[in-house]
Amino acid sequence: MTTRQRNQLQKLLGSSLISTHPATLAKYSGDAWYAAALPDMVVMPKTAQHVQKLVQFCTKNKIPITPRGAGRGYVGGSVPIKGGILLSLHRMKRIREISVEDSLAIVEPGVITGDLQQAVLKRGLYYPPDPASLKESSIGGNIATNAGGPRCLKYGVTSHYVLGLQVVLMNGDIAELGGRTHKNKVGFRLHELFVGSEGLLGIITQATLRLIPNPPDRAALVATFKTAKQAAGVVSAIQKAGFMPCALEVADRFTLQAARNYTKNTPDGNAFILTEIDGQKNSVASEIRQLKQLIGAFKPITIRTAKTPKDIEALWNMRRDFSYGLRATGLTKLNEDIAVPRGRLLDLFRYTEKLQKETGLAVACFGHAGDGNIHVNIMVKPEEAMAPTTQKALDKLFQQVVAWNGSITGEHGIGLAKKAWWSIAVSRESDALHKVVKKSVDPDGLLNPGKFLSPVEALKIDMTPQLPSAAKARA
User: Fold this and answer.
1) pLDDT by residue (tens digit) across 416-433?
2) How would DSSP label each residue in 158-206?
3) Confidence band for 458, pLDDT divided at 50, 70 and 90
4) What is the DSSP string of 59-115?
5) Do residues 147 and 136 touch, judged by C-beta distance below 8 A?
6) In the beta sheet, which residues pair with residue 86?
7) Which pLDDT does position 461 carry in this prediction?
8) How far apart are CA 208 and CA 192, in angstroms?
9) What is the pLDDT of residues 152-163, one digit of tens each?
10) What span, in angstroms and rounded, lies between the C-alpha atoms of 459 and 475?
């Protein structure tokens, strides 16, 4: 950007919405991944009209725009690698409406997911998508990445709750897509096109979200086993028996040992399962009894149930200790979010053990067993996060997942981190169609440029891994 353009934008939007201060530019230069690039300017709009003015100016002057939510992404999706404008939507944080009668909420993109959940619970309603970062991540970012979480097994991911969107397009239009009804078959499902688009197609300035009744009762169960095979058998047995838990989580031996080293709350065993049931009180009580009996047939080392909110939260805290335990090893956790067909769950755990032996790198697996979305964490020394040996290990993992007809990302997106594997993740026809859609709404390629639809190139950005203290501050 030129000095003249900076001055013109300041006059157009007002100095309170713009910053070129070095500390601010650095703050918004990256997300929770290991790359950063300084933008020329950070713009922090408060209304859709502010966004519209910015887009019109940038389109006219051919200035890149990189949208950013709360910066909690793990794939470098909001790194402004082409400079230009970093568009932070954190000031657009109003919950405009919660309608009990229509079972919906209308929110701006900067609303924190956990805050929305608490607000609708007070009205007896429930917004199920629950990414691990729900207390920090924003609705706009969740929509851009189609975020999931443990409870998406039963309730689905973010896309299942988006009824409508307000989107600013690169031609300056403010498009109202979808609507307020829970069923709507007027034309193409255009609002769904922007869910999971990673900020490449338009800028979300408002969302209409479907809400459901809050289940009146919950119960949870944790069990540990000697082998991953037993745990995989339990996952299969639960689903074959006709149960539909709202969550079904697993963890491997490395993860459990790291958690034990970190806290005394983790029970013995080499494999772990956590499942949660919700619904009406009598049915929940019956199902948790049946689940305990079913799991008992697999001879767990330990088994523990929880029926009160406090006790259930204690079990989930045990699950959350996995990430803290892995961080406490002093190694950098490369958090991959692959998804495999559910019948490949045991194969995946076997393969990651093989990968450890082949590469000499520790691999920790835990995550959402019920839908095959497992976080495969490659654990490396901080200075080796972007080393060739590390990238080779990732390549082996992604190649195997694709060979199983799996996905290289189930929640986080492609961004920069998985850009090199985009070509193996989709067919040539799918890649071409993506590019046709992109070209139609962003002909100059100004919106979130340099990400997965752009050619793979040598990135002129800071790829230096963050030291543990800095990583914690950024993550």
Assistant:
1) 999 999 999 999 999 999
2) GGGGEEEEEEE-TTS-EEEEE-SSS---SS--HHHHTTT-TTSS-EEEE
3) low
4) HHHT--EEEESSS--SS-TT--TT-SEEEE-TT---EEEEETTTTEEEE-TTSBHHH
5) no
6) 42, 66
7) 56
8) 12
9) 999 999 999 999
10) 22
Whole-number mean pLDDT of the chain? Answer: 93
Write the DSSP assignment of 255-273 as a string of letters.
HHHHHHHH-TTSPS-SEEE
The string of pLDDT tens digits covering residues 27-67 is 999 998 888 999 999 999 999 999 999 999 999 999 999 99
- Which residues does residue 332 pair with via DSSP β-bridges, in sequence order? 380
**DSSP 8-state class, residue 453:** T
- What is residue 406's DSSP assignment? -
User: Phi, psi at residue 237, to the nearest 5°?
Assistant: -65, -40
pLDDT band at 6 (very low <50, low <70, confident <90, very high): very high
Query: For the chain, what is the radius of gyration of the CA atoms?
Result: 23
* Separation in Å, CA 131 to CA 33, 91, 149, 279, 459: 17, 21, 4, 21, 29
- Encode pLDDT of 241-282 as tens digits: 999 999 999 999 999 999 999 998 899 999 999 999 999 999
Tokens at 397, concatenated: 């993992």
How many Cα atoms occupy the beta-carbon half-sphere of 194 within 13 Å? 26
Please tell me whether residue 470 adopts helix, strand or coil conformation. helix
Ramachandran region of residue 156, left (φ > 0), alpha (ψ -120 to 50) or beta?
left
Other residues' Cβ atoms within 10 Å of the Cβ of residue 97: 12
> What do you get for the CA distance between the two ends of the chain, in Å?
29
| Under 8 Å between Cβ of 344 and 372 | yes
